[in-house]
Amino acid sequence: MAVPKRKTSPARKGKRRSHHNPLGVNSIECPNCGEFKLAHHICSACGYYNKKEIVDMTESEEDQSDLPPPN
Ligand SMILES: [Zn+2]
User: Fold this and answer.
1) Which of 44, 56, 59, 63 has the most CB atoms around it within 10 Å of its CB?
2) Residue 19 — very low, low, confident or very high, per pLDDT cuts 50/70/90?
3) How many structural domains comprise the chain?
């Protein structure tokens, strides 16, 4: 079995993982609420895109009262 010859240093590990989080690359400020969101995506905070409300975030709260109780 092939085994690494040297221990991976913390600096090398950090350099490798610097590409692991793609968020923040395309993030812009939402013109509606000011939260950071991905460009060309619906804002996850207010549900707006292109100055129009696409997803009503006020109704997206989990409403468990309508569900029948489990056995
Ligand atoms: Zn927003």
Assistant:
1) 44
2) confident
3) 1
